[in-house]
Amino acid sequence: MERRSVPSAAPIGRHRLQLPPQRETAASAYMSARLGNLRGSATAVRLLQSGLATSTSENYGRLFDAFAAYCDAEGVSALPAEKSTVIAYVGHLAELGTWMASSMQPIFSAINDAHRSLELDPPAVDNFFLKRVRTGLGRLQAEESTTDSRTPLPAAAVLAFIDAAERLPDDALRHLREYVALVLTALFAGRQDSSVHLRSEDIGFGEAQLWLRLSEKGKRQQSVRRVVRLPLAPSAVHGHASVLPRVGALLARYFALRNILAPSQPAFAFQLPGEQRPTTACMERWLAHALARCGIRAPPGFAYLGHSLRSLGASAMAAIGVPRHIYIWLGGWARGSSVVDRCYIDPTFAACPAAYALYGWALSGLYCADAGTVVRATTLPDPRLTAPAPGPTLPESPAHVRAARAIRLRAATRARA
Question: Which of 92, 101, 204, 314 counts the most CB atoms within 10 A of its CB?
Fold first, then answer.
């Protein structure tokens, strides 16, 4: 009996991908022209478009836009750019005074990425003069200012914020919002962006407890969202009364006054009706305003900035003896991360009554938390950028778009020839 061969079905892989919506970039247009119609080429192009996180791609686009605008004004090419152009651009930024030398690497990464996406030589790498100019800028800036953004805020300052908030009249809702946001951020050693991104449904309170939905860093662009519950009943640790009942009362008052303004609540916890979503820059301003109103100044040569709240939480909890894994978890640092030790904990921070009042609940274990849920980490678009994004993606740099169009035109010309 003759045996017929039966074509085998294609194997079903365990790692099938759900590709994101297609969006054209200079790199994808360039690679499409190079790959042609080879099997897998379309998927490879989509993977190329997903190679950068959305937030990184957006930031690179903004930074390259600024560089391209500078080049257009000076009458020189931005793509490809000469190394001398990048060096002059550093001098231009130094004249503006808008960038620290230590924070400029994303600018060079954006310029280099724009060139590499077209297989052009990156102009902002391995250059003696560029490195020396950056070093000179850093040296001069250090002589002008010795501020340290990681300087922890004193625990007593947060108690001063609570005192000031309790004295506010009901028509000072904006000031009350500032104090409540700052106190809650310090209480959990939170990030500025995490605090301003808290949604209205992420905070709740009653007569017995205050709860907050926190995010813990995970792997592969994922995070764990947990509800942490703190008791609002009066308690004391080492003889120091907890501030949790006072914080709960301030939160209740803030939300009650906000409800009076508008029955439909804004999406974000620290957003007032009619406002845009608050950003990290808002938290910096709120802290500056609160410090000025309370007459609190940093020691000479230092500054209290947004990171000072997070540094306070880590330093104070470490000083009073809270177990390390607890404050790393509360602050949302990745497990096993050394960043908290290198950048946030000040070893000179001493245990004090205010630290026990703020963080005694963590030392005595007066809290509970659920198992949490794993969610995909996302980045919210900046509300100050009003230009609509094409579909579900973010706008590319205009210089990238021009390059993509030129590549498509050349590819179409070759196809007709």
Answer: 314
Say how many Å lie between the first and final Cα of the chain, rounded.
55
d(CA 313, CA 306): 12
d(Cα 98, Cα 78) in Å, to the nearest integer? 21
| Sign of the alpha-carbon torsion through 319, 293, 204, 213 | negative
Assigned token pair, 289: 């305003």
Determine how many CB atoms are found less than 10 A away from the CB of residue 50.
Answer: 13
Output the CA torsion sign for 381, 382, 388, 390: negative
Q: Per-residue pLDDT tens for 319-359?
A: 999 999 999 988 888 777 788 888 899 999 999 999 999 99
| CB-based contact 364:251 (threshold 8 Å) | no
List the structure tokens of 94: 């130094």
SS (H, E, C) the chain: CCCCCCCCCCCCCCCCCCCCCCCCCHHHHHHHHHHCCCCCHHHHHHHHHCCCCHHHHHHHHHHHHHHHHHHHHHCCCCCCCCHHHHHHHHHHHHHHCCCCHHHCHHHHHHHHHHHHCCCCCCCCCCCHHHHHHHHHHHHHHHHHCCCCCCCCCCHHHHHHHHHHHHHCCCCCHHHHHHHHHHHHHHHCCCCHHHHHCCEHHHEEECCCEEEEEEEEECCCCEEEEEEEEEECCCCEECCEECCHHHHHHHHHHHHHHHHHHCCCCCCECCCCCCCCCCCHHHHHHHHHHHHHHHCCCCCCCCCCCHHHHHHHHHHHHHHHCCCHHHHHHHHCCCCCCCHHHHHHCCCCCCCCHHHHHHHHHHHHCCCEECCCEEEECCCCCCCCCCCCCCCCCCCCCHHHHHHHHHHHHHHHHHHHC
pTM above 0.70, yes or no: no
Cis ω on the peptide bond leading into residue 80 (within 30° of 0)?
Answer: yes
Report the alpha-carbon distance of residue 377 to residue 144 in Å, rounded: 39
Gap between the Cα atoms of 175 and 177, Å rounded: 5
